[in-house]
Amino acid sequence: MSSKEKYLGEFEQFLLLSILSLGDDAYGTTIRQLLADKIERDVTIGALYTTLERLEKKGFVESKMGEATRERGGRAKKYFKVSASGEQALKRSKQALNTMWQDVTLRGEHSYE
Fold first, then answer.
1. How far apart are CA 111 and CA 58, in angstroms?
2. What b/e sequence results for 74-95 when a residue is b if at least 16 CB atoms lie within 10 Å of its CB, and e otherwise?
3. What value does the CA radius of gyration of the chain take, rounded to a whole number of Å?
4. What is the pTM of this model?
5. Does the pLDDT of residue 4 top 60, yes or no?
6. For residue 58, how many other CB atoms are within 10 A of its CB?
7. What is the pLDDT of residues 68-96, one digit of tens each?
8. Alpha carbon 79 to chain centroid distance?
9. Which of 34, 51, 87, 60 is nearest to 26 (CA)?
């Protein structure tokens, strides 16, 4: 891993995985709902968008504006997509975690291999 390649934080991983899971329907509200449903994590919209902006600056996500809709008072949704470098960053993080979990056994549990 070069010095420019950094590991992702836990929340960054959750957001990237949410976007991949949602596909073409990945925008703020759906990402937030998925996190609440799957990992019971209530995320403020501010924290969500701040992290998405940071991921976009790093080149890990791309965004585009959708069409304005009546039900949103004429506002458009901002959709997100994980870039190729974002997928690579996720793979690096997954590999690093898997490596660190090898040969680790928590009290009262069996090995995670």
1. 35
2. eeebebbebbeebeebbeebee
3. 17
4. 0.84
5. no
6. 15
7. 776 666 778 899 999 999 999 999 999 99
8. 13
9. 34
3: pLDDT strictly greater than 60: no
User: How far, in Å, CA of 18 to CA of 112, rounded?
Assistant: 24
Give the whole-angstrom CA distance, residue 48 versus residue 59.
Answer: 17
Instruction: Return d(Cα 106, Cα 93) in angstroms, integer.
Output: 21
| Mean pLDDT of all residues belonging to the chain | 90
Residue 111: band (very low, low, confident or very high) from pLDDT cuts 50, 70, 90: low
Written as six digits, the tokens of 55 are 């991921």
Query: How far, in Å, CA of 83 to CA of 61, rounded?
Result: 5
The closest of 99, 41, 25 to 13, measured between CA atoms, is: 41
Rounded CA-CA distance 58/85 in Å is 9
Confirm if 13 and 93 have CB atoms less than 8 A apart: yes
